[in-house]
Design goal:
Layout (H helix, E strand, L loop, with lengths): L2 E7 L3 E8 L4 E8 L4 H16 L6 E7 L11 E2 L2 H12 L5 E5 L4 E6 L5 E6 L8 H11 L3 H8 L13 H13 L4 H23 L5 E4 L6 H11 L12 H26 L1
Parallel strand pairs: 1-4, 4-5, 6-9
Antiparallel strand pairs: 1-2, 2-3, 6-7, 7-8
Helix pairs in contact: 2-8, 3-5, 3-6, 4-6, 6-7
Amino acid sequence: MAYTAGVDVGSTQTKAIVINESRQIAGRALIDTGSNVVTAAEQAFAEALRSANVEEEEVEFVIGTGYGRYRVTFGNTQVTEISCHGRGAVHMFPGTRTVIDMGGQDTKAIRVRVSGEIVDFCMNDKCAAGTGRFLGAASSALDIPLNQLGPTALRSERPVRISTTCTVFAESEVLSWLGKGKKIEDILQGVHQSIAARSIGLLRRVGVEEEITFTGGVAKNIGMIEALQKGLGTKLNVSDDSHFMGALGAALFALDHLLAGRAPAAAGRTS
């Protein structure tokens, strides 16, 4: 059996997925990107191979995606993360028509066809206020681990209103509310609601059509899931592999390339 792979080099973390010809995930890996993007791509791919118990020569096509996709030097080609998240989301949840991808540095709203083809998209390319970076600022200010932000926010009874629209000033506003005696959970709920509101604004620009699938690293945050669902008035599709959706889409595109390359030979044998 042949395999293909997708390597998604993000600003914060790098993800790799290996799939087989049946489009099943055979292995995955997630590492911090760090300062050396090329090394991060190589290490993530190597870890995904180990996870799949597959040798590198068994992987016949590799596609790089993410902001560092051109640094996946061992890859065969590159595909944008927007296309890859759309493809991965529809593969995981076939009813997907809208995707919200929230990562460390940007958030993307994507509308897709039943095939996963992109209809429209927009992103907050000028501000990180509606992204994981905003959560990182709150985590730093309150000295709470990122993985505890969501559960803590869900304990809120009277969320505060976060007025800043700039990540640079987010930490100052969080500390200001803390100085006024507000509960940590109420401050964090305010942060989540602020991010959700900006993300929903992006979704409305492309047109919200159910089903909506949540992808990217922030999809692991239960507080963000709840804030988005409340703001949208509908349930989101969220998978344990939501963080890997871009890499999955890249691996699926790689399999398309592989199978397309075999098609003429197969046709020749049957003629």
